[in-house]
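Complex 338.
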Amino acid sequence: MRERLENLQQEALKELEGSSTKESVLQVKAKYLGRKGEIASLLKELGSLPPEERKTAGEAINLAKNRLEEDIEKLLKGFEDKEKAEKLSKEKVDITLPGRTISLGRAHPVSQVMAQIEEIFSGLGFDIAEGPEVELDYYNFEALNLPKNHPARDMQDTFYINDEVLLRTHTSPVQIRVMENRKPPLRVIAPGTVYRRDSDITHTPMFHQVEGFMVDKGVTFSNLKGILTLFLHRLFGENTAIRFRPSFFPFTEPSAEIDIRCVICKGSGCRVCKGSGWLEILGAGMIHPEVLKAVKYDPEEYTGFAFGLGIERIAMLKFGIDDLRLFFENDLRFLRQF
Ligand code: PHE
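Predicted structure with phenylalanine bound:
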């Protein structure tokens, strides 16, 4: 047994020496160390030895097996290292090559203004809410104190889907949806897309608005004035002159429109402000008691103000853009300027 083991070791070493490739080393490995290999069959024969010889013979076989394993692993690692080195020397990176330019996109001017408005109102503790663009007549009109046949429905050329369903003409229905689901105190803005049947240099059938409202015990018109003045100063600059004009909306009473001093001519009168020196920028007012009743708030207990503004118009004034349609043509030469 001892002799056979020694012969076997020598043979294996000789065969390894003669192996010049990874494959031939693997063949030697299988021949001696495999499950049906030479070492395995020696181990199997141990049982036929007299018991007192078994232990030493077993130890000798295991020792030989371990040595052989070590030798083979060393050889295999040598081949692998060589392969790796060859691969690396072929894969040289030329660090003098110029990099590929990645063209960066940027936010659409409407999105930029929207984000800025959201940031200002978030800073004042307002939440952001959303509502559906395909809306029920009830939320877009009825609950906003605009019953069927109300003449003010004509102000908003509506896309109807059927008698009860339409594309929302303003973001005001979100007021109703939020108030139905929550209790005052509420401070919320609702940005989104709105639709009207209108198309010329100053109107597109789809545009964007931001609605805002605040409801609590004791909210007054001076809260409305304070918040909106602060908002417009943040948006257009501290020195922007602002004026409040009486107006009418069915869902607010009293109602106001808010103008800023024309950003183009600074008030001397130009084409953009039609010579008046002022630009209308916001619709607003105290939420009408009928609207509060529609969402089951007690108008004796709670009051609130609401406002709405068009984003495209603000983006036009902020960036000095004179044609609304540019926003929707997606001409990269235009979009890259912002
Ligand atoms: N919803 C009005 C519009 O689209 C704007 C508005 C909102 C006015 C809230 C007053 C209060 O013209």
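The chain has a mean pLDDT of 91.
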